[in-house]
């Protein structure tokens, strides 16, 4: 005979605990902690922040259409997003095991490739719009 638990399995929402404004505040705190971790621990993230600090003002200084300006800004922010995700992948792989494994290498290489594509997008978009 199999035993069936008397309590139903809680759904994912029940496990999250907070809702409404309290959840937004908590999520903002987690996001800030993520930014701080990336800035402290990832040289590539710091370099991209510097690139953004240099290029974002230029995006608002040059005479381009609003759509072009939006693209100039979007590709810069995209590079930060990709680097945060790449760093998260690397941290997760390292958390699982520091052992060299082909799948771990593949995951890290794919994250690096994604960042390469985002940097290529910056170069192409800025080059096409400004040149």
TrEMBL record:
Which GO molecular function annotation, any one, does this entry have?
metal ion binding
Task: Supply one GO BP term.
Answer: phosphatidic acid biosynthetic process
- The record's free-text note on cofactor binding: Mn(2+), Zn(2+), Cd(2+) and Co(2+) support activity to lesser extents.
Q: Does the keyword Membrane apply?
A: yes
> Where would you find this protein in the cell?
Cell inner membrane
Which residues bind a divalent metal cation per the record? 42, 90
Keyword annotations: ATP-binding, Cell inner membrane, Cell membrane, Kinase, Lipid biosynthesis, Lipid metabolism, Magnesium, Membrane, Metal-binding, Nucleotide-binding, Phospholipid biosynthesis, Phospholipid metabolism, Transferase, Transmembrane, Transmembrane helix
Membrane spanning stretches? 48-64, 70-89, 110-129
User: What residues form the catalytic site here?
Assistant: 83
Q: Report the GO terms under cellular component.
A: plasma membrane
Q: Which InterPro entries does UniProt cross-reference here? A: DAGK, DAGK_prok, DAGK_sf
Q: Which reaction does it catalyse?
A: a 1,2-diacyl-sn-glycerol + ATP = a 1,2-diacyl-sn-glycero-3-phosphate + ADP + H(+)
The cofactor named in the record is:
Mg(2+)
> Where is ATP annotated to bind?
23, 30, 42, 90, 99-101, 108-109
Role, per record: Catalyzes the ATP-dependent phosphorylation of sn-l,2-diacylglycerol (DAG) to phosphatidic acid. Involved in the recycling of diacylglycerol produced as a by-product during membrane-derived oligosaccharide (MDO) biosynthesis.
Official protein name in the record: Diacylglycerol kinase
Q: Which organism is it from?
A: Azomonas agilis
């Amino acid at each position: 005979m199999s035993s069936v638990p008397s309590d139903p399995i809680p759904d994912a929402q029940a496990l999250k605990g907070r809702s409404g404004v309290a959840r937004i505040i908590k999520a903002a705190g987690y996001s800030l902690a993520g930014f701080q971790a990336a800035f402290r621990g990832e040289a590539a993230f710091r370099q991209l922040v510097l690139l953004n600090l240099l290029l974002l003002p230029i995006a608002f200084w040059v005479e381009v259409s609003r759509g072009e300006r939006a693209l100039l800004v979007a590709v810069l922010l995209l590079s930060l997003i990709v680097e945060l995700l790449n760093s998260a992948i690397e941290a997760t792989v390292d958390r699982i095991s520091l052992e060299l494994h082909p799948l771990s290498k593949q995951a890290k290489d794919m994250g690096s490739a994604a960042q390469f594509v985002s940097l290529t997008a910056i170069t192409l978009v800025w080059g096409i719009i400004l040149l």
